[in-house]
Write a structure and sequence with these properties.
The structure is a single chain. By secondary structure, the chain is mainly alpha-helical. The protein has one domain: Up-down Bundle (Growth Hormone, Chain: A). Helix content is about 75%, strand content about 0%. One of its GO terms (cellular component) is plasma membrane.
Length: about 525
Amino acid sequence: MGLGLPRAWLVGLPTPVVYGSLALFTSVLHNVFLLYYVDTFVSVYKINRTAFWIGETVFLLWNSLNDPLFGWLSDRQFLSSRPRSGTGLSSQAVVLARVQALGRHGPLLALSFLAFWVPWAPAGLQFLLCLCLYDGFLTLVDLHHHALLADLALSARGRTHLNFCCSVFSAAGSLSVFASYAFWNKEDFSSFRTFCVALAAGSALGFLGATQLLRRRVEAAGRDMGCSALAWDGGLRREELLFGGEEAGSITLGQYLRQLARHQNFLWFVGMDLVQVFHCHFNSNFFPLFLEYLLSDHISLSTGSFLLGISYVAPHLNNLYFLPLCRRWGVYSVVRALFLLKLGLSLLMLVAGPDRPGLLCFFIASNRVFTEGTCKLLTLVVTDLVDEDLVLNHRKQAASALLFGMVALVTKPGQTFAPLLGTWLLCFYTGHDLFQQPPVIPVGSTQPWPEPPASAPARASTLRQGCFYLLVLVPITCALLQLLTWSQFTLHGRRLHMVKAQRQSLAQVQTLDIKTV
């Protein structure tokens, strides 16, 4: 009786809430990973520079290639060029397969997260293996989670509602960043390790519970489409058949890539998104450096820590406002407005100069918040590209995971370009080499802010000016490039409505054909 009420409450949760909760179980781990994995291996495990760069180089290759690889392995059975008489998979089975994959890979992601915080091999080898294992399972989780967004809902309203729930839970998961400060201690690592074990255990149990609930919803939808929470906008059809396998005339990867090369909106989108990924990671990589060299004399350490923590939470909260705007005005218009806002704020900061501490604080934080928030909205654009790909190539079922993987293949190199280009520009304009100087003290550390060398005030002034120009010129350049490429993107307005209508009609025609037979 005691367990009956909580169980009934969990079973009664709306499907978007269950779907969104999966973002919580990913973000509680990933935000801590992003903040601490480099500092752990550099400061705690004492990895040498050569092993670090080898690990990052291999990680770059693996990080770029595993998205399309896993997407192809997941969706190749759906890429049939002609139907085959006989049995097939229903769209219900496709969703079930993705949910079951999340139930398997989510706990494995939590286990690979734990591998970072316990030394079990030479530092260089552990760094390489941990990065590749963690990113592999993270890719599998992200691909299936994002693919479900395209498979569970077809309408823009339905998808923005699902994304809204993801933003709420991602914001809640980002609170792990604040909690981690109480446990982070390089000299006594045991408390932080215990904290990470608790995070991983909670995440693994959450994945198991949420996927079980979602699986029951999908199975219930197959039994009674009229009462299904998944059928609220036509995202799941019981009778719709999918024909897979080589016997069905499935296309090869080369044929799929040629089809994608003719998909103009896909090409314009990945060009814009490559710049967006670069800018997101540039902000993350250089956030502590900007705080140190531009604001260390004007703000306290606790204020800097607060700015860093809030920059992880605010993008998700920001989307709670932007997603309703997307439903009203369309994702294309909202994203374009965010690019214009980024350009306007950067130009304002450039005119104001580096001697406005209050404005600098606002700009550094808002620049990261709006840039990260835009990344969250672009998932909705990829789901529209999934629809257009299905309609243009007359597919039997949308290759959701594969298209998300192909987007990642082109855009993820921006993660590596950001620190490389940023450090090169800083050295070019100021002569300051980060690898030959004392390391930047991370925000949240108990150590005091480093003071500029008293014997070189001119050099400190040059470094400060160079950091300022790096802070404002990078977003100005990114915004201009993105406005140019985004203006060529045509999947919005009337064309988007036509694509949505054609996908709906294709599904209805398939259903009518099956009933006739």
